[in-house]
DNA sequence: CTGAATCCTTGCAGATACTG
DNA sequence: CAGTATCTGCAAGGATTCAG
């Protein structure tokens, strides 16, 4: 299908942007990332604090997702060279931008909790 | 820790609501669900149309996620008893409600595409 | 066309242990 | 305390096949 397609630079750019957007989407649209963003909010939290806040997340998932968020520039990681080490995480501006979305989803969940519960009961037949 | 906890009905309800909310969150906060919701939008689409719209989704993932969304009352599934069968999917009101959130995330992605790209380059060092 | 069921592979995610 | 590495299982997800 790409055969004989006029490959203008603009088109190439659009393709790259689209695939990147899709990639970011895949990275960030998962529950742990959302929960981290939601729990960070305007605060600055340590690794262990986050671990305690987010019920059910494992050490490994937390580090993995924090790395991912850092890589994409949604959180900043600051290391205090003390002993014991103290590592803190904060949302960046893009991170705070996404927080609005996540907040929206939380609101949505609570708004429609009843609808959904009813739908589930209806479904089990 | 639940030992000796005053289990008032209100508290029990809150707990149930919380765990349900968390469950819904886990169900819905995944990329395929988001992409389905985004692509459905205000339209009504057939299974095969959705399959074509959402690049990279497998037959199985599409059915699984549609079932999940149907179960939670975010989409309705209408079967036309023709031959060959024709099955259409549409967002419900809760589904359209969530669409606002998903749209927000799409906007966010495009807004910060540059930031993120830059952050990634910075990270690879 | 839609969807369920089957196999089969892969990679996720938990547990554990070890460094700085 | 924070992070990495290794091992292991189990479940997600792809390909295929069959049914309605």
Automatic annotation (TrEMBL), chains A, B:
UniProt key word Transcription regulation: yes
Pfam families the UniProt entry points to: HxlR (PF01638)
Keywords: DNA-binding, Transcription, Transcription regulation
Domain HTH hxlR-type: 17-117
Gene3D superfamilies (UniProt xref): Winged helix-like DNA-binding domain superfamily/Winged helix DNA-binding domain (1.10.10.10)
GO molecular function: DNA binding
Alphabetized PANTHER family for the sequence: TRANSCRIPTIONAL REGULATOR, MARR FAMILY, TRANSCRIPTIONAL REGULATORY PROTEIN
The protein's name: DNA-binding HxlR family transcriptional regulator
């Amino acid at each position: 299908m790409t055969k004989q397609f006029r490959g203008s630079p603009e088109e190439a750019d659009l393709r790259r942007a689209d695939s990147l957007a899709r990639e970011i989407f895949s990275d960030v649209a998962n529950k742990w990332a959302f929960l981290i963003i939601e729990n960070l909010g305007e605060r600055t939290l340590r690794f262990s604090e986050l671990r305690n806040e987010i019920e059910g997340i494992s050490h490994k998932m937390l580090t993995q997702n924090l790395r991912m968020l850092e890589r994409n520039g949604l959180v900043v990681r600051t290391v205090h060279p003390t002993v014991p080490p103290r590592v803190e995480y904060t949302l960046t501006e893009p991170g705070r931008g996404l927080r609005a979305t996540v907040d929206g989803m939380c609101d949505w969940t609570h708004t429609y909790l009843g609808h959904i519960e009813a739908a589930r009961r209806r479904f089990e037949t």
